[in-house]
Design goal:
By secondary structure, the protein is an all-alpha fold. It contains 18 helices and no strands.
Length: 403
């Protein structure tokens, strides 16, 4: 594997860290800016909405320059956003910094995947893309817990400065190690948008929003839930996030392994189990050991849905997958934004720090319903196509020539 993949993995590591680390630092940020925990949750919502808007926008704009240059621009945006967050004098400025950083997220993974695949032989493309995404996975095992520890020990601003430094390393790595590649061909927007007329594409994206949203409803408020309800110290949140990250790694590997062969059954099992586990989290959150196990299960079940959901979108938008793929990355983050906001609403309503778990359970169950609907429609369409194919009328016989 070429060293250029290491530069992409470092960028992915930084992006993954800045996306998730805020959840371990919400109490510190809220206290510093003198806002409530639900208000601080807008830092999660704002980032997620930035990815939703930035993924398709930056992907289209990225066709105007070489891929290497676009990756450098994206890492530059990422660095600027994290520096703004780290030095923000007021909450609104920090929120703006989060949005700036989020614009790099979706397009970096979309364009980076193409670059990674082009760096290796055809039979190694999947491995190259997986190596880049390893940075995102490792971020949740190492970067997020370490960033949480730094934030709680030195101050949350130090965490975002450290993440910005990672972005600088990633930017220099791309500049030095990623070879120049020809400018990407222009996106035919009309052709790409046609994929969104396919109801199966829309259903798959809706499943993405609701399914992954179920995870973030609980995890966004994991710090106050564990400290106020389970009785953990603030410093223990670090290793709880490690458990969540390990669950993510395991779930992602299992999802990737079975998505090609048993995509819809995998979605049924993972979404159904996720809804059940999130429901139980309202009870297990009161016990330290049970809460720790539940957090690992949420990470595993939640990320077991990622490979099949992404593959579902690509399969259904096979004729024009570029924009659909980028939008689905945004859909994951739309789910994050929706669930973080709903979780804040139920907490602000006085329902307690475990109430977001019920929100997550409802979202995951709704995604399961959509999966069943999608599969049912697909079977009916296939059956209708077979019936039409078997009842094609025979061509009329040509009368014999008269002599």
């Amino acid at each position: 594997m070429p060293l250029a993949l290491l530069a992409l993995a470092i960028g992915a590591f930084g992006i993954g860290t800045t996306e998730f680390v805020i959840m371990g630092l919400l109490p510190e940020v809220a206290a510093d800016f003198q806002v409530s925990i639900p208000t601080a949750g807008f830092l999660v919502t704002g980032y997620a909405l930035g990815v939703v808007l930035g993924a398709p926008l930056m992907t289209v704009l990225g066709t105007r320059v070489t891929r290497k240059r676009m990756l450098m621009i994206l890492m530059g945006l990422f660095v600027i956003g994290n520096v703004v967050s780290a030095t923000a004098p007021v909450f609104d400025v920090m929120l703006a910094g989060r949005v700036i950083a989020s614009l790099a997220h979706g397009a970096f993974f979309g364009i980076g995947s193409v670059v990674a695949a082009d760096l290796v032989a055809p039979h190694k493309k999947a491995g190259a893309i997986a190596m880049m995404f390893t940075g995102l996975t490792v971020a949740n095992v190492v970067g997020v817990p370490l960033g949480t520890y730094i934030g709680q020990s030195v101050g949350w601003r130090a965490t975002f400065l450290a993440v910005a430094a990672l972005g600088v390393i990633g930017l220099l790595g791309v500049a030095r190690l990623v070879p120049d590649q020809p400018r990407a061909e222009g996106v035919r927007l009309r052709h790409e948008l046609a994929a969104f007329r396919n109801v199966q594409v829309l259903l798959a994206m809706a499943m993405t929003v609701l399914g992954f949203g179920g995870v973030f409803a609980a995890i966004t408020y994991i710090t106050p839930m564990m400290t106020e309800i389970a009785g953990y110290s603030a410093s223990s949140v670090t290793w709880l996030l490690v458990l969540f990250g390990l669950g993510m790694v395991g779930g992602n590997l299992l999802g990737g392994k079975f998505a090609d062969r048993h995509l819809m059954p995998l979605l049924y099992v993972s979404l159904g189990a996720l809804a059940v586990v999130l429901s139980l989290f309202t009870l297990t959150a009161h016990n330290k050991v049970a809460a720790a196990v539940t957090i690992a299960l949420i990470g595993g079940l939640g990320f077991a849905t990622v490979p099949p959901l992404q593959k579902r979108v690509l399969d259904q938008a096979a004729g024009a997958p570029t924009l659909a793929s980028a939008v689905n990355i945004g859909a994951f983050n739309l789910g994050n934004a929706l669930s973080a906001w709903l979780g804040g609403v139920v907490i602000a309503a006085g329902l307690g720090y475990t109430a977001p778990n019920w929100v997550g359970a409802v979202l995951a169950a709704s995604a399961l319903v959509l999966a069943v609907v999608s599969s049912t429609l697909e079977r009916r369409t296939a059956t209708r196509s077979r019936l039409i194919a078997t009842h094609v009328p025979e061509p009329a016989a040509v009368p014999a020539a008269q002599h």
